[in-house]
Amino acid sequence: MTRCAYCPRLIAPGTEAGRDGYNHPVCVDCAAGDDAPGPETEACAFCGRGRDEAAVLVVGPGVAICDECVRLCGEIVAEQRPAPSGPDGRAR
Question: Which residues contact 38 (CB under 8 A, 6 or more apart)?
Fold first, then answer.
């Protein structure tokens, strides 16, 4: 069994619907949709960097995000997250 490149489904041997532009296995449902990315359309949805401009481009069904935007998002989440409180309710 292998996993679809675009969703969490497991694909039994011999039942994959095809392969994407990077030769990754694709399940029947993802192959039928128009939102599976191809090599010519992949770019970060946040900054527009393409695969050739980013160190890493994480690709999902119809969307991609580069490593720099993931890092920046992590910083934003860390800034927005409330400070953890101790057992007495006060910030640590």
Answer: 20, 21
d(CA 46, CA 42) in angstroms, rounded, equals 12
Nearest-Å Rg of the Cα atoms of the chain is: 18
pTM comes to: 0.50
Let me know how long the chain is: 92
List 3's β-bridge partners, or say none.
Answer: 10
CA distances from residue 1 to 18, 23, 60 in whole angstroms, order as listed: 15, 16, 20
Within 33-88, where are the H helices? Answer: 67-80
In whole numbers, what is the pLDDT of the chain averaged over residues? Answer: 78
Q: Could you read off the pLDDT of 42-68 as tens digits, one per residue?
A: 788 899 998 889 998 887 767 888 999
**Spatial distance between the Cα atoms of 7 and 30, rounded to a whole number of angstroms:** 8
